[in-house]
């Protein structure tokens, strides 16, 4: 993996055990998490998290301008490693009730490589690292 740099970070309080990330549009109702630590469609990822017991720390990483930049936590476990379509070049992170919603521009519209890693896969996840890369053409 190429080196990355933290581009953004946010702490989110969630009432429900699911955090959504991906395109800024509506999350499809067909995206169902069931008992897995994460589930995805072409535009979003749902991640199981620890609800109502403190803030969920979310860090967003992109390719750096400087090579010595700090990257995502290597001890975290990947729960999604694939691609997402971001129609407006922005990624949104938020709770299922849309009470907390964070949006960050990552580039032009298109498909991005996305890796989502958590400190503890499943219902005890309290920290999420999201790494965004633009696929090579």
Using brief descriptors, characterize the structure shown:
137 residues, mainly beta, 5-stranded mixed beta sheet, 5-stranded antiparallel beta sheet, globular
Strand order of the largest sheet: 1-5-10-9-6
- Secondary structure: helix percent: under 10%
The biggest beta sheet reads: 5 strands, mixed
Radius of gyration: 14 Å
Strand content: over 45%
**How many beta-strand elements?**
10
Low-confidence stretches: none
The N- and C-terminal alpha carbons lie at a distance of 17 Å
Mean pLDDT score: 88
Helix tally equals 0
Order of helices and strands: EEEEEEEEEE
Instruction: Give the helix/strand class.
Output: mainly beta
- Global geometry: globular
Describe the structure in your own words:
The chain is an all-beta fold. The chain is built from no helices and 10 strands. The radius of gyration is 14 Å and the shape is globular.
List the helices and strands and how they pair.
Blueprint: E1 5-12, E2 18-22, E3 38-40, E4 44-48, E5 56-62, E6 77-86, E7 90-95, E8 101-105, E9 110-118, E10 127-133
Parallel strand pairs: 5-10
Antiparallel strand pairs: 1-5, 2-4, 2-7, 3-4, 6-9, 7-8, 9-10
Quick rundown:
The chain is mostly beta strands. The protein has no helices and ten strands.
């Amino acid at each position: 993996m190429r080196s990355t740099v933290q581009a953004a970070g946010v702490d989110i309080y969630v009432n429900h055990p699911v955090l959504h990330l991906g395109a800024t549009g509506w999350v499809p109702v067909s995206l169902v998490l069931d008992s897995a630590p994460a589930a995805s469609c072409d535009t979003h990822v749902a991640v199981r998290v620890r609800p109502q017991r403190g803030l969920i720390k979310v860090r967003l990483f992109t390719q750096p301008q400087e090579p010595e930049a700090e990257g995502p936590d290597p001890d975290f476990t990947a729960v999604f490693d694939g691609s997402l379509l971001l129609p407006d070049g922005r990624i949104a992170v938020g709770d299922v009730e849309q009470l907390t919603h964070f949006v960050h521009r990552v580039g032009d519209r298109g498909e991005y490589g996305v890796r989502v890693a958590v400190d503890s896969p499943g219902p005890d996840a309290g920290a999420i690292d999201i790494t965004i890369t633009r696929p090579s053409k």
